[in-house]
Amino acid sequence: MPSFLLFSFVIGYFLLLLIVAWRTSRHSNNDSFFIGNRNSNWMLVAFGMIGTSLSGVTFVSVPGTVGDFAGASYKAFAYFQVIIGYWFGYLVIAFVLLPLYYRLQLTSIYNYLHSRFGSVAYRTGALFFIISRTVGATARLYLVINVLHIFILKDLGVPFGLTSLVILLMILLYTFEGGVKTIVYTDTLQTTFMLLGLVVCTVYILQHLHLSLGGAMQALDAKGFTHIFNWDVRSKGFFPKQLLGGMFIAIAMTGLDQEMMQKNISVKNVGDSKKNVLTFSFIMVLVSFLFLLLGGLLYLYSLSEGAVYQGHQLMLNGHGVIGDDLFPTLALHYLPQAVSIIFIIGLISALFPSADGALTALTSSFCIDLLDIKNKPGLSEQQKKRTRMTVHISFAVLFLFCILIFKWVDNKSIVNIILDLAGYTYGPLLGLFAFGIFTKRALENSWKITALCLLAPACCYIISRYSAAWLSGFQIGIELLLINGILTFGGLWALSKPGDGEARG
């Protein structure tokens, strides 16, 4: 299919988002931007959060994990171990964190750290969120932008840097005014198209291979693609490690993340917000399994078309079809044109939720948590809006810089990078919130808190790097986040005083 035709669908989709943004951002103000006036419909938030959580990583990278290739942390359906852990993490969010956030009527969830420990812990938590979300969001963005560039815009002579700049400008345009109020609706639209892409591609391949759903599972099982549980204690993929790691990653990357919670606390009341999380968690597990199923079907399809393994690389007519290359290569070169168009629409639907919510949440956190524009005396509403817009644009520039770094580093499985980085950046947040919720100890409002939160990830890096040598081949995997949180918790305990704090959990 001509690249220009595919790109026209990207432009058409963006224009649709602009129309939605224009409709939803009329009469908006700073409160609309930050928390949607606390008037969001919980069903829309739950559905839209699927697109934000899955993003381009699930759409492109997760199907690619099914194949057996060198250096992969997940093979066959092993990634589903993490998904099971996610579900338990969402239960903690619904029944522990959300009641806390609503009781304190938070705009930024890191205000909890201020009320519990003081300004240093508060700003430290916000800083770690900003680092975590910037790295995670740009990794997700890079994945999808790279696919769009390689398969569409490169043929039109557009360089990667310009591709990234144009897409970020698109995102800026439709999030500039409405913020959360707009994103609740655009995320719903984008999730719909992303799931449409998943269903259409799955149904087409099943029909092409003349398989029913049951027959597909049997064919996948015969190839060894349906294996889920890993019981090798020393492996990074050991099931209990994946379960615990997935649980705490969900707690940290959703429950302690301003982007995700900003949408949850925009719902009218805590009861509806709980319904949102529980509904979202069920659909998330189902959709993640379907993406793994699609990955297996894509490998079966490529093998039926004559693909052969060359070492750990699967080649089809000179194209590498393994890891993150699998889905886009087959969809754009080997599937019918109609399916290619639906894939592109699904792909860009996975792209925009990765960045629009992140830009909005980062802007909110920086303005509220670090600049404190809501409480600055003498600052007019117009001045606050000008500051917010300046910060919004600045984060878009930072996103561009980070995307270019990911392009320079390059990796065939972004999902592994994101989970690894989350272990380092979200660990201190996990330790801070756990210490505040589950103890009554008090902390001195000093720089030692920030120093400790920087030291814990550094120690985790050393542990991760040398664990195999120190522990007879035992490898630290996704559970690194939990180790990081425990180190932070232990350090905070050592710095604290007994009996003076108030437990607010």
List the helices and strands and how they pair.
Blueprint: H1 3-25, H2 30-35, H3 42-64, H4 80-103, H5 111-117, H6 119-153, H7 160-175, H8 180-208, H9 213-222, H10 239-255, H11 258-264, H12 270-304, E1 308-310, E2 313-316, E3 319-320, H13 326-333, H14 337-370, H15 381-409, H16 414-425, H17 427-438, H18 448-470, H19 480-495
Antiparallel strand pairs: 1-2, 2-3
Helix pairs in contact: 1-7, 1-8, 1-14, 3-6, 3-8, 3-12, 3-14, 4-10, 4-12, 5-6, 6-7, 6-14, 6-15, 6-16, 7-14, 7-15, 8-12, 8-14, 9-12, 11-14, 13-14, 14-15, 16-19, 17-19, 18-19
Please provide a written account of the structure.
The protein is mostly helical and 505 residues long. It folds into two domains: 3-416, Up-down Bundle (Sodium/glucose cotransporter); 428-505, no CATH class. It has 19 helices and three strands. It has helices at 3-25, 30-35, 42-64, 80-103, 111-117, 119-153, 160-175, 180-208, 213-222, 239-255, 258-264, 270-304, 326-333, 337-370, 381-409, 414-425, 427-438, 448-470, 480-495; strands spanning 308-310, 313-316, 319-320. Strands 1-2-3 form a three-stranded antiparallel sheet, with no helix packed on it. The longest helix is centred in the N-terminal third of the chain and has 35 residues, at 119-153. The protein is globular and about 70 Å long. The termini are far apart. Mean pLDDT is 81; it is low at 32-37.
